[in-house]
Design brief:
By secondary structure, the chain is mainly α. It contains 3 helices and no strands. The protein has helices spanning 12-28, 46-50, 60-76.
Length: 77
């Protein structure tokens, strides 16, 4: 533990830069932010496909609905 007279071993700017780097990498990989495809995961299972549950890949109307929802969400920000 550092005493009052000692400087921290890592400057605050370097720490902030490292945190920002990790957050940026997570955002690039899609771990943070708005979920692009809000279709429930169950729709992609064998049971969901056999039940006819819509996915953007299999149902053009569902794909249009998802795109419209994403556009509306983006405009509201």
């Amino acid at each position: 533990m550092a005493t009052r007279n000692e400087k921290p071993s890592v400057p605050a700017d370097a720490a902030a830069a490292e945190i920002q780097k990790v957050v940026d990498e997570a955002e690039e990989r899609g771990f943070l932010g708005v979920e692009v495809d809000q279709t429930p995961n169950e729709n992609y299972t064998v049971a969901g496909v056999l039940a006819g549950k819509p996915t953007p890949e299999t149902n053009p109307e569902h794909a249009r609905k998802i795109r419209q929802q994403l556009d509306d969400d983006a405009r509201s920000r």
